[in-house]
Amino acid sequence: MIDTRWKRWLLPLFGRRRAGRRTPESFRPRGTTSRVSRLAARYDAEVDEALQRLWPKARIYHDREFTRDRADFLLVVRGRGVMVETKVKSDPGLFRGSTLPPLLDRLQRDGRRLVVVLNQGDPTPARELIAAKLGDKGCVIVWSGPEHDADLKDAVEGLLRQMVRHP
């Protein structure tokens, strides 16, 4: 049976939408539509350049799909992997890590290491969250440019030193 109500057919074509009706998250294009999205895309590129600069022989795998339970990068150095998750804040306030639990749950099951790289802010609450879920297998650092490369290198190398390649 065909729907013959013209209103139902024409309103979506002319862009009139009812108040409160929104497009589901899964259908929204992941692009650079907001200021934070543009900052995040640029920050991911800067972190990628830093990883390549600090570990020129390492393999870096990027997760092109947006999911909350997978990290943005997998950095493989000397046969050992560390997950790298980037987080962008538009204000310099506290970073609580409210978007991290799905990722932490997955990494806790997999036994993987994680470095959360934050552009600005106070990461103390997120550090407590990661310590509760991953223990010493995870850390949070604030990295805002090449002047903080030493912090990034220390964090990743510290996690790599924990790993035993052959038990």
- Number of folding domains? 1
> Which range best describes the helical content: under 10%, 10-25%, 25-40%, 40-55%, 55-70% or over 70%?
25-40%
Q: How many DSSP H or I helices? A: 5
The profile of the biggest β sheet is: 5 strands, mixed
Strand percentage: 15-25%
In round numbers, the mean pLDDT is 81
Q: Give the helices and strands as they follow along the chain.
A: HHEEEHEHEH
Structural write-up:
Strand 4 (114-118), helix 4 (124-134) and strand 5 form a beta-alpha-beta unit. This protein is of the alpha/beta class and 167 residues long. Strands 1-2-3-4-5 form a 5-stranded mixed beta sheet, with helices on both faces. The N and C termini lie far apart (66 Å). 38% of the residues lie in helices and 16% in strands. It is elongated, with a radius of gyration of 20 Å. Helix 3 (101-110) packs parallel to helix 4. The chain has one domain (34-162): Trna Endonuclease, Chain: A, domain 1 (3-Layer(aba) Sandwich), CATH 3.40.1350.10. It has 5 helices and 5 strands. The chain has helices at 6-14, 35-54, 101-110, 124-134, 149-162, and strands at residues 59-62, 73-77, 80-87, 114-118, 138-142.
List the helices and strands and how they pair.
Elements: H1 6-14, H2 35-54, E1 59-62, E2 73-77, E3 80-87, H3 101-110, E4 114-118, H4 124-134, E5 138-142, H5 149-162
Parallel strand pairs: 3-4, 4-5
Antiparallel strand pairs: 1-2, 2-3
Helix pairs in contact: 3-4
